[in-house]
Amino acid sequence: MSRIKQILIAVAAMLFIFSFTGFAQNPAQPGKTVPAAKPKVQKKAVKEVKKPQPALMITPAEMKLGLITFDKAGEGTIALKNARADRMVWSTQGPEGWAKAEEQQLSGVLEKEPVDLRVAVRLSPKELLNHENGKKNVYADAELILESGDKQLVCKKELPVGAYHQEIKMNFDNEQTSLYVSFTIAYTQESSMISLNPQRLDMGIILPGKSVSKKIILTNVGREMLKWSVAAPRHDANGAAYLPKGRYLSLMSGEPSGGPYNVPPHLKDSVTLTGKWTSSNGYPACEKGANNIKVSFIGAGIILYLSNPPEKGNLTVSLNGTTLNKIELWEEVKQNAGELLVAQNLTFGNHVLTIKSHDTPLVLEGVRVLGVATSFFPEGSVKVFPNSGATTRQSNYLTVSLNPTQMAPGYYADEILFTTNGGDVIVEAFAEVLPENITKVIDVYRYFNGNDYLYTADPVADTQLIVQNRYIKEGIAFRLFKADTPGTKTFYRWYNPQTKSHFYHYQPTGGGKDLRGYMSEGAIGSIATSKLTNTRELYRWYNTATGHYFYSTDIHGGKINKKVYKFEGIAGYVR
Fold first, then answer.
1. Which of 340, 336, 300 has the alpha carbon at shortest distance from 324?
2. What is the residue extent of each domain of the chain?
3. CA-CA distance, 500 to 494, in Å (whole number)?
4. Distance between CA 323 and CA 317 in Å, rounded?
5. For 469-572, where are the alpha helices, taking DSSP H only?
6. For the residues 296-301, what does the mean pLDDT come to?
7. What's this model's pTM, rounded to 2 decimal places?
């Protein structure tokens, strides 16, 4: 290469390098390079992302069980629902820190239908030595029971008095959430201990302006003097710290022990006993033999109370004709101090609880009907006399009086709170107040001969008819109203001597019934043609084989043969 070409190439290279360096320098600040500008990227609009709905829905997320004592458990039901389309497996090991069987857990499968998770907390007293002062205090051995279907998880822990908010972790598929159970233990005992009988006080059915009174027996079953007083019920801003659920009905008849037991008059249309029943401190008791009790009620569930729970025996419990085989009766009754939850969350309406005892001793205290809306007693309407005292070993007889002057018609439930030097104890009190214009009702008795059923409000006047046709008495079937009661019509009776059958209707023409061959036997009372306060349906069935009719407040028809009887609907409304 010639000398001239080499010089030209060198000059060109220097010019190239100079031009590149100048391009990369900041003209305002020589020597400093400016980073190459990044291309502008258009940002996309960010969409708001909604949080996904929980797959396991828990309602309520916190179960408030309220006040828990040694003689009152707390219980409730939580609904578990699957928000997904596919099935879900769930499980729980209960609250942390509670003792349970090793590796024990409660589990189940959720599909389309919700599953009930029943929660209960109950206590039993336990004496422990307080090392600080050498005195003995009573703590609680608490049991938290989780139950779903026929599966149960029992968790145990020793707890002192106080409020508790327990977290229970729920596992579902590969995820986890929590539900909470809150309750308050408000009863500890040192050396004196109070016993109150009864623990549930049924003030009965009260007419307007008519005061009523009942007795409570207070006994000190401890070693030292018991100081006690009656305090105002604990009603908080939200309504109550404690409100008894449902309507309690006591079977106490007031008859002396050992004699025959008779159902209280206000329960005769809802409680029926067959077999041999005697009075045990006023409650119905049976020994050997076949003894049955039937309780008709209007509500959404029922709890049964037994005094002195017996040993395991031959007992059948059925609801609406269906035998309940899921209940290990005796174990459950013993664990709950004689309380047995038979059914809950039923469709509100008429139901029948039947208990059949076969050579099994029983003492029945009463029932609690669930699903009935109640109100608190107005302030000052309930008084206890005496309302305070100091008791050693004797028993005190307290009078509880209820003045319904300020009470509207309806159902009432509240607590009578006893504060003592050994802790607080409550007695639940219940009552039903009738409307001012309540009309007296008439007992209607049922007699039968074969398929013919005779209903009469005056068996004496019908004596000749009863004797001639050899009718057998069954007892009170329902109650009608007196004549001219507003909202009612005369309930007529007819008899067909050829078919030997009776027919009843509130229309004098029979309401479309062909009355040829029937003879009028007059009226037996008045029946409501629409549902009035405190009335229930009277149903009618027709025997398609014989032409006979049957009437009952039991929607299932009781003992009649459903294969030959056709249900014909509501004949009217009765008490």
1. 340
2. 1-31, 56-185, 194-433, 441-574
3. 11
4. 6
5. none
6. 89
7. 0.50
Largest CA-CA distance found in the chain, in angstroms, rounded: 158
- Taking alpha carbons only, the member of 395, 388, 479 closest to residue 442 is 479
Return the amino acid letter for 38.
K
Of the candidates 435, 532, 437, the one whose C-alpha atom is nearest the C-alpha of residue 479 is 532
* Whole-angstrom distance, CA of residue 434 vs CA of residue 456: 26
What's the helix, strand, coil split of the chain in %, to 5?
5, 50, 40
pLDDT tens, 453-483?
Answer: 999 998 888 988 999 999 999 888 999 988 7
Q: Give the tens place of pLDDT for each residue, 97-150.
A: 898 876 688 999 888 888 889 999 988 765 443 334 333 445 678 899 999 988
Place of tokens 């209707």: 505
Q: How far apart are CA 94 and CA 90, in angstroms?
A: 13
Residue 468, φ and ψ in degrees, nearest 5 = -60, -40
Per CATH, is 194-433 categorized as 3.40.30.10? no
* Number of CB atoms found within 10 A of residue 547's CB: 15
Whats the size of the chain, residue-wise?
575
Q: How far apart are CA 140 and CA 123, in angstroms?
A: 6
Is pLDDT above 70 for 51? no
Cβ neighbors of 514 (< 8 A, separation 6 or more) are: none
Residue 24: which H helix or E strand, with range?
Answer: helix 3-24
SS (H, E, C) 244-268: CCCEEEECCCCCCCCCECCCCHHHC
Supply 55's token pair. 């797959």
User: Is residue 160 helix, strand or coil?
Assistant: coil
Long-range CB pairs of 442-445 (<8 Å, 24+ gap) are 442/479, 442/480, 442/481, 442/482, 442/525, 443/268, 443/476, 443/479, 444/476, 444/477, 444/478, 444/479, 444/480, 444/524, 444/525, 444/574, 445/473, 445/474, 445/475, 445/476, 445/477
Backbone angles phi, psi at 27, to 5 degrees: -65, -25
Tell me, which fold does domain 56-185 have in CATH? Immunoglobulin-like (2.60.40)
CA distances from 1 to 15, 16, 215, 524 (A): 21, 21, 134, 143
- Note whether 56-185 and 194-433 share their fold: no
